[in-house]
Design a protein that fits this description.
The chain has 210 residues and is of the alpha/beta class. 52% of the residues lie in helices and 14% in strands. It has a six-stranded parallel β-sheet with strand order 2-1-3-4-5-6, with helices on both faces. The longest helix has 15 residues. The radius of gyration is 19 Å and the shape is elongated.
């Protein structure tokens, strides 16, 4: 008899966790051994229960995001595989999750069968990506000129929220001259010539999340 895969659900929404638990409850080859709403609780339970796969959301209740939680989980002596399951699909979200060591990245609108296959693949150490996520990564590889640095994403996000250069410099603890330099680079990468056009292009290409 095959031993069921041991799963942990990490999501700060109880309804989401309940739905996933019910979904996996129909599977004889998988069992949910723990669930957590915060990064700290996820790390604590993973260390004690040693699940095979952790399904990780990117926004958690304690203010520590799923990327950081993933990195903490993978630093455990016997780390689980981490499969991101989220609604967020910006370049920034995807790359941060991959850089943190996530085995896969799925969106919450995926079909149950796709999720089940992804869990098995993740448990086997295979990289799993939702088709939209894979397409975004391919676009990023084909068009490196649109790749924004973490700082450029921060500046664009603040710009989109209506902050002026002076406010951005204060919030990010950098000079206004540095803000202007970053904006020049952003304009060049996005092929635009104004603040409004930069924000529009970034939102349209899902380079930032508002």
């Amino acid at each position: 008899m095959t031993i069921p895969l041991r799963l942990m659900l990490v999501d700060d929404h109880p309804v989401v966790r309940a739905g996933l638990r019910a979904l996996f409850g129909s599977r004889p080859d998988m069992t949910v051994v723990a669930e957590a709403a915060t990064a700290a609780d996820a790390v604590r339970q993973a260390a004690a229960l040693r699940p095979d796969v952790v399904l990780m959301d990117l926004q958690l209740g304690d203010g520590v995001d799923g990327d950081a939680a993933t990195a903490h989980l993978l630093a455990l002596p016997d780390p689980p595989r981490v499969l991101v399951l989220t609604t967020y699909d910006t370049d920034e979200d995807i790359m941060h999750a991959v850089e943190a060591g996530a085995t896969g990245y799925l969106l919450k609108d995926c079909a149950p069968d796709e999720l089940f296959r992804a869990v098995h693949a993740a448990a086997a150490g295979q990289t799993v990506l939702s088709p939209p996520v894979a397409a975004r990564l391919m676009d990023r590889m084909r068009g490196p000129q649109t790749t924004l640095s973490t700082r450029e994403v921060e500046i664009l996000t603040l710009l989109a929220r209506g902050h002026a250069n002076k406010e951005i410099s204060r919030l990010l603890f950098i000079s206004e001259a540095t803000v202007k330099t970053h904006l020049v680079h952003i304009y060049a990468k996005l092929g635009v010539d104004s603040r409004t056009a930069a924000v529009h292009a970034a939102v349209e290409r899902k380079l930032i999340r508002l």
